[in-house]
Amino acid sequence: MEMNSLILTTPPSLSLSSSSFKSKHFGHLIPATKPLNSWTTLKRANNVKALKGSHTLSSNWEIKGTATAPWLPKFEELDTTNMLLRQRIIFLGSQIDDTTADFVISQLLLLDAEDSKKDIKLFINSPGGSVTAGMGIYDAMKQCKADVSTICMGLAASMGAFLLASGSKGKRYCMPNSRVMIHQPLGTAGGKATDMSIRIREMAYHKVKLNKILSRITGKPEQQVELDTDRDNFMNPWEAKEYGLVDAIIDDGKPGLVAPIGDTAPPPKTKVWDQWKIEGSRKAKKNLPSEHKMLQNGSTGGQRSDEEKETPQDKDTPTSV
């Protein structure tokens, strides 16, 4: 670079006369604030216009029309969980595990701390899951001062049915097309023999504890609860109400809400259903009529009377309904 050849030149439009400068501080020359020509004025005006049109940090806080109409979020911005929570509704719609239990427990405690005099509505559509996670939700429901109303939609099975029955008495509901299922705890055990015995003993503990709680909730003897939960026991809403798991069936009588029954009356019960209600030993289930027995007795055509269909064993063993 040739430093000696650098020459500072002044444009013709700019004049370095003393009249265009004002001396203010310590004898230094400071340029005057007034515009020097039309080109500079136009450039500054464009810069101010661009600055006003740009988005600033505070521009997003100014919502137009807030004084006349409330601001509504877009459809993609809606959070259904929080919107239901504002209505004191908790939705349990998945398998019950530790993550789901923590989420439901936190919502129960939050709503109870917000207002302990208003009911909390717990909607259940769950196939069940972990016993320990479900017992955590159960303890949180009992810890709440507010009443926890439970509503079954779809399916409440296993631990889901247990939580459905654990709601506040008189506030346990079932939708007319839902299903409820109770059974004993399930699990696997592997490893060493001592480890397997520990796991089996733990499963037996949970089985006894759940049966005791269900017995207290439904008012049925523990022996009957143990018998009824020996296998998967599916119930319709009216059977669940009769068993003591729910208090009422939600049905407003709209056409098509329940098919084929359109009112709150339970469906017609068959002879098999009456025999399933027998309270006693495990022999009651062994005496139930099976399809093989019906074929042997020739009762598929429906022409024989009830007395002709009964076997000598059925006549000798009276049953109490």
From TrEMBL:
MF terms in GO: ATP-dependent peptidase activity; ATPase binding; serine-type endopeptidase activity
Spans annotated as Disordered: 260-321
EC numbers for this chain: 3.4.21.92
Organism domain of life: Eukaryota
Protein name: ATP-dependent Clp protease proteolytic subunit
GO biological process: protein quality control for misfolded or incompletely synthesized proteins
Active site: S158, H183
Organism this protein belongs to: Saponaria officinalis
